[in-house]
TrEMBL record:
Domain of life: Bacteria
Pfam families in UniProt: ABC_tran
GO molecular function, one term: ATP hydrolysis activity
Residue span(s) of domain ABC transporter: 2-219
Lineage: Bacteria, Pseudomonadati, Pseudomonadota, Gammaproteobacteria, Thiotrichales
InterPro entries reported for this sequence: AAA+_ATPase, ABC_transporter-like_ATP-bd, ABC_transporter-like_CS, BCAA_Transport_ATP-bd_LivF, P-loop_NTPase
Protein name per UniProt: Amino acid/amide ABC transporter ATP-binding protein 2 (HAAT family)
Amino acid sequence: MLTVNDLSLSIQKVPILDGVALSIAEGETVGLIGRNGAGKTTLMRAIMGLIDRESGELIFKGRKLHAEKAHARAGLGIGYLPEDRRLVPHFTVEENILVPLWASKKTADLSRLKWVYDLMPEIGRFADRKALTLSGGQQKLVALARALVVGTDLLLLDEPFEGVAPALAQHLMEVISSLKDENLSVLISESDYTHSKEVVDKVYVIERGSINQMENINE
């Protein structure tokens, strides 16, 4: 589904990623583990085209993803949950969920939206509320719903459990675990795999912008 080959980039001339390589197969859930500042968020932002690479390749379903404009990547079937959620405060929950469809100029798939509401019924119950009225945990759920509505093939989840109560973290993990039935490919970043260990198929460890090892969890 996704292959990252020898990816390197710098921000303001400071090297951040150095020869990063990883792969995610169709239907596979992969962990990206590293301390704060290790390069997890930068890697996800590079995959989404929000940061320009200096060298290396991003191959998605056999096509050169790095050749695609950033705003077009959601339309390719890639959903992204950023660490800081990035909701539009004065938009309703449903408007926030539909933003990536509007950005990619795709007609809203109401069946996909209904599927998201069925998967997380609490989202449907406050669909008409403004995002700014939600708790941090509720906003995290909305950001996940936004990623899911376009992420028909690949989901990038950057620190989805950070800053949420244990009960909500468990609920998020249950939702993510259920995605295996949908044959979605998922990349989850965490500082460790406390939450995701039971669902990931393999884990990449990133340190100082480099992938140092890969562990097969199920072996």
